Amino acid sequence: MISTTDLRQKEIINMVDGRRLGFISDIEVNLEKGRIDALVVPGPGKFLGFFGKDHDYYITWNEIRKIGMDVILVEINDVIVTKEEQDAFHDEL
């Protein structure tokens, strides 16, 4: 068993590309089914989960592969593009 406090102290890492997505800012719970539906991680441009324009990452429970001592490994096959990467791409054009 793990508490939400313990979950929030673990860094989220995508196994597909090795990207460090950050730490959990919120947890979406389905009260009808009594389960966690998703973990919410602030976008890379946000400070403490606030003050930023990037969208949050919503990681569904099905994308979680392993909850370890220090990290949570997820498998997200969709390309995750940060605002900074998108801006850099448009600057090159």
From TrEMBL:
<feature type="domain" description="PRC-barrel">
    <location>
        <begin position="2"/>
        <end position="76"/>
    </location>
</feature>
<dbReference type="InterPro" id="IPR027275">
    <property type="entry name" value="PRC-brl_dom"/>
</dbReference>
<protein>
    <submittedName>
        <fullName>YlmC/YmxH family sporulation protein</fullName>
    </submittedName>
</protein>
<dbReference type="InterPro" id="IPR011033">
    <property type="entry name" value="PRC_barrel-like_sf"/>
</dbReference>
<dbReference type="Pfam" id="PF05239">
    <property type="entry name" value="PRC"/>
</dbReference>
<dbReference type="InterPro" id="IPR014238">
    <property type="entry name" value="Spore_YlmC/YmxH"/>
</dbReference>
